[in-house]
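seq:
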Amino acid sequence: MNPSNKKNAYQKTLKSYRNTEILTANKEAILLLLYEGAVRFLKQAIQAIEKKDISEKSRLIGRVQDIINELKATLNHKEGGELPASLESLYNFITDRLISANQDNSVEKLNEALGIIVTLQEAWQQAVSSVKNENKVSETR
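struct:
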């Protein structure tokens, strides 16, 4: 098998694995996967701007916007107190930064959005980990 075919086979297997992971994941895992994707696509969009690959930058920013829209759609304003409203405000700010960065080819604005998303990602990782630990403790009782 030539190297190109090996790479394609590997990518196909990896894609299949990720699809299975997503289809069988719980809500918390999906949330973390969304944040992971947003971070990855933002970093790639920054690289695309640096390489002056405008079409790739726009495509990647669009992927991040899709993820942010999905995160906004999952907010439950009937439960959760002030958290959903606060998250919605942050998501709206991120969306504003993404649109502006796409228009201006601004790495600075993408870095602003990235900083917020990474902070939220870390907070959710801690929250999910904390819930898992609490569940383990309750199961041992």
